[in-house]
Specification:
The protein is 82% helix and 0% strand. Helix 1 packs antiparallel against helix 2 and helix 2 packs antiparallel against helix 3. The protein is mainly α. The protein has one domain.
Length: 162
């Protein structure tokens, strides 16, 4: 009964984390829209101050401040899309590399087990039914050669040489 409770808590945690992420995104987007919108309004209103040097100077100072903030907002959103794409690509490559490493490791462990099996048949301390020490299996050298070739192939696929 404990396993379903853990999975329910895990799924609830994921839901809460996603909710928090969506809230942060919504607040960030709202602030960005407000800043960019206010900058556009100020920019439009600056045109009405043409011919009035004092108002034009004040409006220009405020507009310079707002353009800096709007530039930060726009840079954040336009820089974020490529960064998210690169992050997704890097995660996919890492997952593929991990999967490939696990496959190579499993194959290497299987081949090591085969070698252990061959060596058990060739142990000098083990006595056969007649009391004489067993001789190495007749096909052991060719079997070991085949396993060695498979290990080299596995190493080649993983990008390393043996």
């Amino acid at each position: 009964m404990a396993a379903p409770k853990i999975s329910e808590e895990g799924s609830r945690r994921i839901t809460v984390e996603l909710g928090i992420q969506w809230f942060k995104e919504a607040v960030t987007a709202l602030l960005g829209l407000i800043i960019v919108g206010y900058t556009l309004v100020i920019g439009w209103r600056v045109f009405s101050f043409v011919g009035e040097p004092q108002k034009m100077s004040d409006a220009k100072d405020i507009l310079m401040l707002m353009l800096g903030l709007a530039g930060v907002v726009i840079g954040y959103y336009f820089g974020r899309v490529p960064a998210d794409a690169r992050t997704t690509q890097a995660l996919q490559q890492a997952d593929a590399a991990k999967t490939r490493a696990e496959q190579v490791s499993a194959e290497a462990n299987g081949l090591a087990d085969q070698i252990d099996h061959l060596l058990e048949g060739a142990r000098p301390g083990a006595a056969s039914a007649g009391g004489a020490p067993p001789s190495p299996a007749a096909g052991a050298p060719s079997e070991l050669t085949r396993i060695r070739d498979r290990l080299r192939e596995a190493a080649r696929r993983s990008g390393r040489s043996v």
